[in-house]
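Agenda item 2: zinc ion complex prediction
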Amino acid sequence: MGGDLGAAPGGRARYQVTTPDLRRHLADLIKTEHPFVYCWSCLAAKLRIEEPKLRDTAQMLVVGQRQDFVLARRECACGASDQLLVYTKAGA
Ligand SMILES: [Zn+2]
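Presented output:
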């Protein structure tokens, strides 16, 4: 019993492909395009990455910089509507 510090229950650890670089890239893009919001497939196309990877990265942004980024229901210019990554100006 016990002594199992290394193992995270629930199997939430996936392959680690979300590099800090990619996170920064995504953050910059979202800030630059603000107040326009892109859906996941448009963002994935812009960044040339796969959508699951994009969502993972977005999740890390929301968790790590929750004062800057939130997930909110928005509509993309392409017409897709979903919970999307939205930039919220700090203090606004
Ligand atoms: Zn779109």
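Discussion summary: The chain has a mean pLDDT of 84.
Owner for follow-up: CH.
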